[in-house]
UniProtKB/TrEMBL annotation:
Transmembrane segments: 37-58, 64-95
Name of the gene this protein is made from: qcrA
One GO cellular component, as annotated: plasma membrane
Ranges for domain Rieske: 219-314
Function, as annotated: Iron-sulfur subunit of the cytochrome bc1 complex, an essential component of the respiratory electron transport chain required for ATP synthesis. The bc1 complex catalyzes the oxidation of menaquinol and the reduction of cytochrome c in the respiratory chain. The bc1 complex operates through a Q-cycle mechanism that couples electron transfer to generation of the proton gradient that drives ATP synthesis.
Cofactor: [2Fe-2S] cluster
PROSITE patterns given in the database record: RIESKE
Protein name listed in UniProt: Cytochrome bc1 complex Rieske iron-sulfur subunit
SUPFAM superfamilies from the UniProt entry: ISP domain (SSF50022)
UniProt family annotation: Belongs to the Rieske iron-sulfur protein family.
Amino acid sequence: MDVADEKHPFADPGLPPHEHRIQDIDERAARRSERTVALLFTVSMLATIGFIASYVAIPVDKNVYIWTLGHISALNFALGVTLGIALFCIGAGAVHWARTLMSDVEVADERHPIEAAPEVRAKVLADFKQGAEESQLGRRKLIRNTMFGALALVPLSGVVLLRDLGPLPETKLRHTLWKKGTLLVNQNTDEPLRASDIAVGSLTFCKPEGLDEHDHGFQNEIAKAALMIIRLHPEDIKDKQELEWSHEGIVAYSKICTHVGCPISLYEQQTHHVLCPCHQSTFDLSDGGRVIFGPAGHALPQLRIGVNDEGYLEALGDFEEPVGPAFWERG
């Protein structure tokens, strides 16, 4: 301890005597601390795995009731809790490691110029090596391995989020609610359609039986399954497959434009053309729904239909190709 004088009016109080921690003198206590740190890192790894599992398994639209929070998104809650635990355990493990196992000897050093002399650089390297040794990173292999595991897994949380950049390789866009035996229901009256209800030259919009506008997923399903029914004179149908898939001149085509997915609603009775109101793509419903004008890239998908024993129109299967603008590459 320095003594105050005229040149240095403030005395250097010095450092207090170093007090050893129990981990410094008791190896069993050090082992307990090591296991505690390893446990925290292990919990972090499990929480990261839980984050990834939650992101994959929990539906986006699922809600749960949490006391004090009310009804919230189950996915957001699970992601927040698991990621918070993963990050907290890494931090808590590092702090506990530093406070109980790393060296806590106080070291006082004089300040030096910004430009380090060779001997100072050598001292810094020596201090670094000494610090690495005192951290016991090489000796405490359990801590080292679990720490590396936790630090390696946590970034995967961000990598998994890249899934939202595009859809997973599924086939859900290739399929609709139409299947063999599904009745064609008038979208306006919500009643099944008989063949006798469809007049020549008329346009009727349909939906699959069982799809209600109050259903949670109604918009997603109707965006794929919306149907338009037109009755033509059989002799006016030019396409052989269209004629085979029709019933007494009644043809069923997807209502979704193959350009950007707008709903088609304009029908020219004399030419049998339907027009998309968004970008004026025009399709010939007497010739396989082919494009005759506009930016649409391919024909409208046709639904094969028939009648059941009671005379109601029914689907004989699903569309043969995906509806909407992206054709085979979607989904």
